[in-house]
């Protein structure tokens, strides 16, 4: 007979069930106690008073008691996080109150709670009213408690009932709960005292429900706290302990250790393109290959994402670290087979050595991370040892980032405009907005010296939006001076701006704010953006074209654009990179390449603009090859907005539309 359907024949004793639901979240710890009156024959003279039917305790995120109603007693050890809840039920007339007041010691570490153990349902006041394992709140609200229990739970509950009935033990369960992302364990022991046999039976059954919702041994919790669930490698916490222990032995034995920091080169592309299941499988295979490339005594860990570390202890010299790093790179350079798809990843590795590079775990991890980024800057799929110069560069990076943020708020950024001319008649067609930084101490700084840092820190999004707004605002003054209809303003847009939320709505807001017409705006995008397999980018570019905004591919020829991409995207202009223009007068191969680009562009009905025109020979040859427009120091260097007015007189009425 199922315990859920059994009708109990109650003797003249009270039967009380205890439901305990624990919810761990960033807002605090809620421990909710609800006593449920079972079916009691009407003749039974013992009843439960109203205040006993709802007993709850709320502990805030600092571990202090906020609210309580009479309960029994709770003891908690500040050293072990062990909390023992003792429920003392004395049968008195009508059971109007519980004999002892509830006392609670501060729960140390409660403010570090991060884990949610089970879906929860809250009442109108925000109290946790029930926690149903593996059921979402919306679906569970209409279910009976019995429907949320698996069949095997019923069977095991029957066994538990029989055991409790025979032994009438005091302690019914001891539950281990992890209360933060690291090592803190709270042990909760539920103990029933002075409860009649049938009370123990019901209490045992109710606790069984909780065990099935939260059952997790202390060993499992400790393992999960120290090992990565995807690869079973030591996680960051575990690795840091290994590294600290190795450093302690290193100081004692005067030895040498090396730390390798590994970052996959194309993980994000694979993960975003093929999906997270492919990304997870790649991480598993990478972990296996790294382990195959090191010694059994070396410690391999996954810090998170696509980052791994290797600890090489008992190292005699740096050559050994180089050999290990090369072996890892060779392993990761081979193709990976992911669910039938062959993909290539590769990795960049940073290496730091102790004691010369540092004597503590945090310093070594920071050094190895810097060396890894140096390897990426050197072309990827390689390794670099940490040097003191990297620390200097890191300091310069942070200082430059701080100064750029100040420049954005202190009006140190400026816009210069470089005119773009028709090559066949030298008429002014438009201008390109170029960013400059007027530093109070260092003078004029060109974008090549700070844009890379802005890209890495994400500040490029704010800078890019500032350039859009400021350039459109300044260009409005020229339109009011009756420039020719074909005149346009070109502004470069980075991939980071697209990823950061530049879309039709935001661009429309800028154009509405400045009054600049959409059909006179030309946005320059890179070939890399064309190759990005992101449906949102294609949608945004199409939206821009619908608004009347024109699009150009900047620095064409330096990336990987194919004709198919040019046909698929709504671009109408190609800007030929200056590297091909520099030697066009002396290099026949460059001349043929430029001629091919121009011919191809015209075949697709695209306008061509040559960048970096610096001599009369280049200008004449480009015109002979059929290039439509040009910009560069030969025609005019970048100038302030006020200087553009002086050039309007040369604008011809036959300006070609871009």
Fold topology:
Blueprint: E1 16-25, E2 28-37, E3 55-59, E4 65-68, E5 73-76, E6 82-88, E7 120-122, E8 128-131, H1 137-140, H2 151-167, E9 171-178, E10 185-193, H3 197-214, H4 218-226, H5 236-253, E11 257-264, H6 267-274, H7 276-292, E12 299-304, E13 307-312, H8 318-333, E14 336-338, E15 341-343, E16 347-354, H9 361-377, E17 383-385, H10 388-409, E18 413-422, E19 428-439, E20 443-445, H11 451-457, H12 460-479, E21 488-492, H13 495-499, H14 504-514, E22 521-526, H15 527-531, H16 535-547, E23 550-556, H17 563-568, E24 573-576, H18 578-582, H19 588-603, E25 607-610, H20 616-624, E26 629-630, H21 641-647
Parallel strand pairs: 6-10, 16-17, 19-21, 21-22, 22-23, 23-24, 24-25, 25-26
Antiparallel strand pairs: 1-2, 2-3, 3-4, 5-6, 7-8, 9-10, 11-13, 11-16, 12-13, 14-15, 18-19, 18-26, 19-20
Helix pairs in contact: 2-3, 6-7, 12-14
Give me a quick take on this structure.
This protein is an alpha/beta fold and 658 residues long. It is built from 21 helices and 26 strands. An 8-stranded mixed barrel has the order 18-19-21-22-23-24-25-26, surrounded by 5 helices. A 5-stranded mixed sheet has the order 12-13-11-16-17, with helices on both faces.
Explain what this protein looks like in three dimensions:
This protein folds into three domains: 16-224, no CATH class; 227-386, Alpha-Beta Plaits (2-Layer Sandwich); 401-648, EAL domain (TIM Barrel). The longest helix is centred in the middle third of the chain and has 22 residues, at 388-409. The protein is α/β, with parallel strands linked by helices and 658 residues long. The protein has an eight-stranded mixed beta barrel with strand order 18-19-21-22-23-24-25-26, surrounded by five helices. The chain has a five-stranded mixed β-sheet with strand order 12-13-11-16-17, with helices on both faces. Strands 1-2-3-4 form a four-stranded antiparallel β-sheet. The chain contains 21 helices and 26 strands. The chain is 38% helix and 23% strand.
